[in-house]
Give the backbone structure.
Amino acid sequence: AHYMGSPYSVIRYPQGVFIIKPFDPAGLFRPERAILLLILFISVVIILLYFLLRRIFRPLKDLSAAVHQIGDGNYNYKVPVNTTDELGELAGSINEMSAKISNSINSKEQLLIDVSHELRSPLTRIKLGLVVDSPKEKIEEDVLEMEKMVTSLLENYRSDAEFGNINPEMTD
């Protein structure tokens, strides 16, 4: 028998009549349900990708923060090294660079303190010599001593600097 275009079976029992409609898979598919499931699936995929990309790009964010900290003068900032891949090597290199910069700045500060102290002695002798009318030769000795110190300091700076080195080359 057919009812509204669908086949069905009728079974009669003394207790009553049973009408059985066969399973129709096309009846389960409804466009609204399919669209809702698709939206749900895409949402779950996007959320999972968000957390995955956050985890993947976290080392880059740490490296960027370190570069900004070092650029602002905080040479004691250390990048967390969590991996042994290229990003981990880069983080280690940035930490090493930061330590070298810090040591270099500390050395230059100490040099400045030492030079200031060393130049103060001849200056004090010159001032004292001018007050007590010391011989001109004694004052000239102190001035020459200061000139030697300044010259030595500049020569040391030039030898450490890249532009101060002379690299002879054979030419035709």
Q: What stands out?
A: The chain is about 65% helix and 10% strand.
